[in-house]
């Protein structure tokens, strides 16, 4: 498996898991969605919102790559989050709709990647204004790892609320989709 094919698989896994997480979260009433459960970002909603914030930040950075990925053109018009805790959407319905849209963009972006592009560099600045330059592939790996980390927190929060998300393994998604 090449790095670019791995990222295509991770993009599909991201979409698959987000669909499962949002379906499970929809079983909570609004008070339970927003209840502070002691996680890094408080609630189930807060954690799902944070994943969206971070995805937006990173996709906007990826859109600045010299390759000028056509899939990321819509991301350029999104407002840049001002903090990692900024609420991008006030309710679960609009957050979920935005999530589906971003997940489709992530899949299209992954389809544009090649191993050569993944080996190239990307210069970017943090929210604190610190400038960095890293290999694009490393940054994309971080992007997917960050999503998985926080979705793991959401599955724990949901489990504590009595909701089972089901199987979350990458290999289960691959088997379900008939992938090798």
Q: What number of domains?
A: 1
CATH class category label: Mainly Alpha
- Computed Rg: 16 Å
The CATH homologous superfamily is called: dinb family like domain
Strand content: 5-15%
Distance between the termini: 10 Å
Mean pLDDT score: 95
Helix content: 55-70%
Q: What is the CATH architecture term?
A: Up-down Bundle
Specify the biggest β-sheet.
2 strands, antiparallel
Our count of helices gives 8
Low-confidence stretches: none
What is the count of β-strands?
A: 2
SSE pattern, N- to C-terminal: HHHHHHEEHH
Write the layout of secondary structure elements.
Layout: H1 3-25, H2 30-34, H3 44-63, H4 73-76, H5 92-112, H6 115-118, E1 121-125, E2 131-135, H7 136-160, H8 170-176
Helix pairs in contact: 1-5, 1-7, 3-5, 3-7
Which features does this protein show?
61% helix, 8 helices, Four Helix Bundle (Hemerythrin (Met), subunit A), two-stranded antiparallel sheet, single chain, mainly alpha
3D architecture notes:
- Belongs to the DinB family.
- Keywords: Metal-binding.
- Pfam families: DinB.
- By secondary structure, the protein is mainly alpha-helical.
- The chain has one domain (3-175): dinb family like domain (Four Helix Bundle (Hemerythrin (Met), subunit A), Up-down Bundle).
- It contains eight helices and two strands; from the N terminus they run H-H-H-H-H-H-E-E-H-H.
- The protein has helices at residues 3-25, 30-34, 44-63, 73-76, 92-112, 115-118, 136-160, 170-176; strands at residues 121-125, 131-135.
- The protein has a two-stranded antiparallel ribbon.
- Strand 1 (121-125) and strand 2 (131-135) form a beta hairpin.
- Helix 1 packs antiparallel against helix 5, helix 1 runs parallel beside helix 7 and helix 3 (44-63) packs parallel to helix 5 (92-112).
- The radius of gyration is 16 Å and the shape is globular.
- The N and C termini lie close together (10 Å).
- The model has no long low-confidence stretch (mean pLDDT 95).
